[in-house]
Amino acid sequence: MSAVHRKTLASLAAVAAAALAIGLIAGASWGWGFFGTGLGALLFHHVRHLSRLARWLTDPARGQVPEGTGSWDEVLTALHRFERAAARREKDLAEALARFRRAAQALPDGVVVLGAGNRIEWSNDKASAMLGLDLRADVGQPVGNLVRAPALAETLGAQGTQELVIQGELGARVMLRLIPYGRTQRLLLCRDVTQAERVETMRRDFVANVSHELRTPLTVLVGFLETVRELKLDPQRQRDYLGMMREQAARMQRIIDDLLALSVLESSPLPAAGRVRVRALLDRVLADGKALSGGGHVLSLEADPHVDIAGSEQELASAFGNLVSNAIRYTPPGGKVRLSWTDGPEGATFAVEDTGVGIAPEHIPRLTERFYRVDRGRSRESGGTGLGLAIVKHALARHEATLSIESAPGAGSRFAVRLPPQRTLPALVAERREG
Ligand code: ADP
Prior knowledge:
Radius of gyration: 44 Å
CATH class of the largest domain: Alpha Beta
Distance between the termini: 109 Å
Structural class: alpha+beta
Bound molecules: adenosine-5'-diphosphate
Order of helices and strands: HHHEEHHHHEEEHHEHEEHEEHHEEEH
Strand order of the largest sheet: 2-1-5-4-3
Number of domains: 4
Number of helices: 14
Number of strands: 13
CATH architecture of the largest domain: 2-Layer Sandwich
CATH topology of the largest domain: Heat Shock Protein 90
């Protein structure tokens, strides 16, 4: 027998016993009278508790289960405990859901949960941004009505896991994967593949460019070989042909050397930063420039370096040397090429100015792309590979340095390298004195 039973029967028995005692002492009518009043009081007690319980049940405010006395104490305490456990379970569930949503928000990809009819149930912020969804307004809407991509509508109608790439918001290319789960649900995963597609296009263009660049001299070389083999040439003509063949082979070698240099710059870690003596570096770059010009240009260097550079001497020499070589190659004989170095607390600047052919503004942003040339013929004639400025850009990026280009057709060019202050070191005192 439960405690509720026991308590109810005990109170009934107490009323009956008291009524019997009163009946024996004061007469049966007093006894029945007391019995009736006692039963009424008990009934009132139960009805009052029942109505309080009914009131709470119509609007079960958390933690406010009514309190009770007598047998109701048992019932309401048990209800209170049950309500507390339910509240705890609800809180745990809400926390688990919040944790799950935080995890889904942290995913690098977009996620949209689709219910029956491909209606949106939930999406993380990344998916909303990529597909232009507004979760508050769009929940319950079929995703096909909101993401206007014809290919998506078709895919939504298909069964099984599907994959497609669509045009997303702000010109992004978005890869979608539709994965069925449950009976009618699907996960729509979104990934921004704009960059990956760009890299793939660049890779394809690069392979095509390299093949083209190597094929041209190779075709010429093979042509000369045939001529030398087939024709009976006098020794002078033969020497001329061999000289031209050597030129083509040298050109191929330059392209391959530059490609290897680029690949090292792109894929290898920067060697431990050494102290690059600026004075010696500039003197070397100037001497190489003079040798390349062969006295055809007026080369000058203005520099009083107060700093050394923390970095790779070989890479900086290659970057500076490429700029000087370009200035010479794109400046007609008799022109001037001026090298300068300035430094201060805000960093250092190495600039190469020439009085050469100059560059039209529309070409300037593309000059550091591999194989980009303003004038292919001129570049080739002067021994260019179209890779020089790409090498400069990569070598400078590895030194946190930037390249700025000012130029106008016919008015010469100025290529300036800015090295940040954290790359400069006070020049060694002994060397400054020597200098
Ligand atoms: P290239 O081997 O063809 O010189 P670069 O990458 O060094 O290749 O330069 C890319 C292009 O930039 C060149 O083909 C040329 O058109 C232009 N250019 C670079 N430096 C100069 C300069 N100092 N004056 C004029 N044009 C230049």
